[in-house]
Automatic annotation (TrEMBL):
Coiled coil region boundaries: none
Region (Disordered): 1-34, 305-332
Basic residues compositional bias, start-end: 314-325
Basic and acidic residues: compositionally biased ranges: 14-34
Native source species: Drosophila navojoa (Fruit fly)
Full protein name: DUF4729 domain-containing protein
Length: 344
């Protein structure tokens, strides 16, 4: 009877503890949402220039989605797609379509919708950004998505110089031999930083370059000559790197290979929680033991191996006095024990 009372009391205490934990989590969530609601109300609604050089329109943050869908979706060589958190998007960059210097091109128009299949995680509902306005017809499904544009610009290394007079002189002398491509993402200002990983591959996915960056506010200056010296939220590709990624390392081109360089984009809100499975402690210990066994197998024959020597002919010598010093250790003996090497 006493045991039943004790078990019932323990169950009741466990239930109360879980309820308190859930209540605490609910309070923390409500507190965060309150902060986000305040932050989203304080977001600037000041319009900015469209980041595309050949587009002269001034766009409000809440209208950028509408502007992007109507003006830049069908741009030549661009990609239009929905994108979700931690879901890779593969695009193809053909440098032959971006030959002009100092011109910002829209390489991709993206609609970011939080976690795929979870409507409650859309940016307009999680207070990451303001909802979009002025959308019509079937575009209303993007009311709470975040518009993002991937911009590419061909410029020179000299754009990284803070001395713009010197930059202009060097560009006039040697612009063609200092060409680079700059990639970066822009979006309306958000209440929290939005991160992305941009990876460039060769055609066979054997070599790559990858960077982790933050999406830039589209109302800021989008001239690489102005933000390259002071920021690092972009990816640079030299002309030589582009040619290297474009080169065919396994013979001639095949119909299955698209013209251009594969680029992978992954967007996420929390950089401290990537969807990567790390090895457990047990797996690490097993790997360590396996490495030790391999090391022993490779080392023991070399350490314990006997050495053959040629014995010189005996000669009659006068008997010398015995040395008081101890004889030296044999060469074939190992002065270090394996246990001391692998002692953890």
């Amino acid at each position: 009877m006493n045991k039943d009372k004790i078990s019932h009391r323990q169950m009741q205490q466990e239930t109360e503890r879980r309820l308190e934990q859930k209540l605490q989590e609910a309070k923390e969530t409500e507190s965060k949402n309150s902060e986000y609601r305040t932050a989203v109300r304080l977001l600037s609604r000041v319009p900015g220039n469209c980041p595309v050089s050949k587009c002269r329109e001034i766009v409000f943050p809440s209208n950028l989605m509408m502007h992007m869908l109507h003006k830049h979706v069908n741009a030549f060589g661009s990609t239009n797609s929905e994108i979700y958190e931690h879901k890779p998007l593969i695009m193809c960059f053909d440098p032959n379509n971006f030959t002009e210097f100092g011109v910002n091109h829209c390489f991709a128009t993206l609609m970011y919708g939080g976690k795929k299949g979870r409507i409650a995680t859309r940016p307009g509902l999680t207070y990451l950004s303001n909802p979009n306005s002025a959308l019509i017809n079937d575009h209303h499904r993007f009311d709470n998505f975040l518009p993002i544009m991937l911009i590419v610009c061909r410029t020179t290394w000299y754009a990284q110089l803070k001395d713009k007079h010197l930059e202009a002189q060097l560009v006039s002398i040697n612009a063609r031999k200092a060409s680079i491509y700059v990639f970066w993402l822009v979006a309306p200002k958000t209440t929290r930083k939005l991160y992305y990983t941009l990876t460039v591959y060769d055609r066979y996915y054997l070599n790559s370059r990858s960077v982790v960056r933050v999406v830039r506010d589209y109302t800021q200056s989008q001239n690489p000559s102005e933000f390259l010296p002071n920021e690092d939220n972009y990816l640079l590709l030299r002309d030589s790197e582009v040619k290297s990624f474009m080169s065919m390392s396994h013979g001639e081109a095949t119909p299955q290979l698209r013209q251009g360089i594969p680029i992978e984009l992954i967007i996420y809100e929390n950089p401290n929680n990537p969807p990567i499975r790390h090895s457990s402690q047990r797996e690490l210990h097993a790997a360590l033991k396996q490495a030790q066994d391999v090391y022993i197998m490779d080392s023991v024959p070399r350490l314990r191996g006997s050495t053959s020597r040629v014995t010189p002919a005996k000669t009659k010598k006068t008997r010398a006095k015995k040395s008081r010093t101890k004889p030296s250790t044999s060469v074939s003996e190992c002065p270090i024990s394996l246990q001391s090497i692998f002692k953890l």
